[in-house]
Amino acid sequence: MTIANCVIVGGGPAASAAAAALRSAGYDGALTLISAEHVAPYERPPLSKDFLTGATTAADLQLRRPDWYAEQGVVLRLGTRVAAIDTAGQAVVLGDGERVGYDRVLIATGGRPRRLPGIESDRILYLRDLADAQALAERLTPGEPLVVMGAGFIGCEVAAAARKLGVDVTVLEQAEVPLQRIVGKEVGEVVAAIHRDHGVALRTGETVESVDATGDRVLVTTDRGRLECASLVVAIGLVPATDLAVGTDIAVDGANGGIAVDGCCRTSAPNVYAAGDVASQHYLRYDRRIRVEHHDNAVKQGAAAARNMLGSGETYDDPHWFWSDQYEHSLQSIGRGDGCDQTVVRGSLADRSFSVFSLASGRVRGVFAIDRGTDILAGKRLIQSGAAVDPRLLADESVNLKRLVVAERSR
Question: What angle do CA 12, 155, 364 make, to 5 degrees?
Answer without folding.
Answer: 75
